[in-house]
C-alpha cells in the first residue's frame, strides 16, 4: 500500500498526481538552460570568479539532471512512458554517466524497504550521526574527487565484468566490448554531444573537461552526499513514513546549489512516490493542514541537517 494512503484520501492523491508534458519539458529545458547560461557567462567574462560560479552551478545542475532522471524513473516527469524513458535516459542520465533502468530497479527497492535491513541505501544513512571529524573527511574526499574517481572506476570495472571479463588483465577485446556496451557506450555518445556543445559555447576544447567532468567528479559528489544525508541521515530506523525520512526546508540559495527541483521534500515523495516534484510543496502544505506537522521529520535548512548528522561526540 502507498504510505500516503494512511494520511490522504484517494481523491487528494489523484489531485496531486497529474503529470504534465509541458512541466516536464520546462524542467529539462530549465536545467540545461542554467548549465549553458553559466557556461556562457564564463565564456563572455572569463575570470576566476565566473569560472567558480559556472563550476558550482553546473555541478549543482548535474544533481538536477540526476533528480529529473529520478522523476522519469517514477514515470512522473512526463505523461507518457516513452517520453520519460527518452528524457530520463538521454537528456538526464547518460550525460552524467548514469543508467536509468539500473537506477529504477535500485531506487524502487529503496522505496519498498526504506530504512530496513533490506534497504540498498542503508549504507548511506547508517553511519549517521557521526562525528564532525568523520563528516569532514567524507566531504573532503568528495570535493577533492576521490569519491568520484572511485565510483567511475567501479562503473568501468562493472562494464568490463558485464562484457565477460575473466581472471587476469582485461584484453583489448574486453575493453572494446565494455566501452561499446549499452551503459558506457551510451554515456560516451551523450558526452560527445556535451563536449561539442561546450566547445561551441566557449570556443575552448577543454571546457568539457574543466566545466563538466571536473564538477561531476567533485562538486556533484559533494552536493549529492549532502542531499543523501538530508534525506535519510540521522532519522529513525523504523517503518514510520513520517519519521524514517526527512523534509528539509530550503531557501533560494539552497535550492540553487543543494536542492534543485523540490528534492528537499523527500518525506512527501516517500508518502506518494509518483507525485510530480512541482506538486510536492502542495502535498507538504496538505499534510500540515491535516495536523501531521508535529510528527513529520523536518529540518529548517541544510546547516541544521549537517549539525544533526555530525552530532556524535568524538
UniProtKB/TrEMBL annotation:
Residues 48-289 form the Fatty acid desaturase domain. Keywords: Membrane, Transmembrane, Transmembrane helix. GO terms for cellular component: membrane. The keyword Phosphoprotein does not apply. The chain crosses the membrane at residues 21-45, 51-69, 183-200. One of its GO terms (molecular function) is sphingolipid delta-4 desaturase activity. It comes from Roseivivax isoporae LMG 25204. CDD domains: Rhizobitoxine-FADS-like. This is Fatty acid desaturase. One of its GO terms (biological process) is ceramide biosynthetic process. The keyword Transmembrane helix applies. It comes from the Bacteria.
